[in-house]
Amino acid sequence: MALFYSKFISTCLIFISCILLYWVNIIHCDILSEIKKPNTPFTNETINYFIELVRQNHGYDMIDVNSYPSPVNYPPIRSWKRDIQIIYSDAIQSGHYICVYYDPDYRTAYIYDSRIENMNYIISEQHDLIVKNRYPAAINRTVVVSPKTEQYDETSSGPLVIAYATTLILGETPANYGFQMNVENQDKAIHLREHIFEMLQNRRLSPFPRSPRLNIEYIADSFDNIHPDILQKITTPNQPFDVRTLMLFNRLVQATTDFDMVSTFFFSYPELIPVHNSTKNDVQILYAKQDQWTAHAVCIFYEAANQMVYVYDDEDINITSAKSDFIERRYPNLKNITFVEPKTGQMDFVSCGAYSIAYATTLILGHDPKTYKLRTRSLLSSLCGSSMFDDPKMLRKHILKMFKSKKLLPFPK
User: Which CATH number applies to 221-405?
Assistant: First the structure.
């Protein structure tokens, strides 16, 4: 009798195991099927399937995305422990995810959001509470990072957040690591989907196919449909440009020239700045707060031949620690910094953004702002000869023209 019951229990256990295995395989197939379906948002189940792979194979204590929105579901970690999370966001109808990476070396929590450029992302109060609860050591330093590859549709948040997390786990940062997108496909994130499918099927993380440069066709929508806030900054007289306007110019340069202009957002996280190839010339726009109330944008040019940085600005303008940190990290072989007085200087206190874009464009197109006189005045103001009419209105119009044409154009002389 005992032998009968033993065999019976053994048979039942085998039967139950088969049912569970069958059920797991069904879920596995459903998830893999969802991943390869073009223009389809990922569900929480798919994200959690990736999370479980990371937990098992890479030792990160990633938390189920269904734990959102309660901060208590994200218990504090030790200050010395590296951590990564994917957190759900209900701010967008189709669902959205952000990736948070804690680096104990800098005691900083980095938030990677694929919608940062379009400013459709929302780091909600709940996200803020979760990050503060999870990373008490980063209470004074949490930064939003501009990823090199961002989202321009309604369905690729899931593929991109998995790509961000994978890249971070494998030791790179999405701030500098651009992904290969397929502009010929109806779903431009199809390469990401294929790679995620392969990783989950093989149960092993691997680097995503990398793209050295942005593709203008991939980011075209941000120029065809310029965000109203950016448009307002460009077209309104006496309106200073903000970081977002300068970022749009950064993207244009990255996608249409050989210059590797990095995101203006790097002033918030200089430790991630990529080191420049010292054999190539380089143009950047630096942006940082001068004091509690004002910020200032400035154009710099790195000349490879003599390893010098030229700052196109008034020498009386203070190079803040953030800008100095950027220069030192970007150009470790730098020999000297020299201030250059542009032929056409800024005459007000609000148009540094417009002038820095004009100087950068001029340098990239092979001219020197020191000798290239920009046309800023209307015919009437030129005839009057009064500096009170010196308004960068024509610079603003030209910048808008470049954005709409999606290419750099020489500024009127």
Answer: 3.40.395.10
